[in-house]
Amino acid sequence: GANPYVRDKNTGQSLLHKAVGDLEILRIALEQQIPPDAVDNAQQTPLMLAKNAKVAYELLINGASLGATDEMGRTALHHAVESDFSSVASVLIWKGADTKAKDTVGRDAYAYARISRSAIIPDLLTNPLAAKKSALRRLSYPSYPVTNYFAPTGLKATFNPGFKPAPFKKDPNAAIYNGFSPGSPRSENKE
Fold this sequence. Notes:
- This protein has helices at residues 15-18, 23-31, 46-49, 53-61, 76-82, 86-94, 109-116, 121-126, 128-140; strands at residues 144-147, 156-159.
- It is mainly α.
- The chain has a two-stranded antiparallel ribbon with strand order 1-2.
- The longest helix is centred in the last third of the chain and has 13 residues, at 128-140.
């Protein structure tokens, strides 16, 4: 089999770093006993590269450190806020990430939220209960990102296969014939 400890010779990233985009591959990499705080050439851990809540949570429950910093002194929370990954930020805040930790330039998560112009993250940073609710909501429901072709370019919609619409109730009082109500101009026979 392949050696799970092999690192990318250009970036120094481990298999765990490369697996942060796919939860199932991440779990396989964690089973190989790759340390969840393995660092790459920029001193970034896999948690700093997490792009969704489930990956971040999986890394945390397997021992990833919230306080680890990269070569710029940025934590996983700094990275999540800078990239406007509100789902990751909500999990990190819920699990106790230091929202006031500063990088080597003196910027905290609030400064990164202003830079990224995030609409959601400032509320998460100031309201831990909102962060917890957001994290639990994102971890509880199966959802798959899908492109919404009717939205402006770049926006994503979420498909939730567990969603069940309310059952259709037929109104017994509605007198509809072929889609039109009696007496409407379109239902009259015109000869």
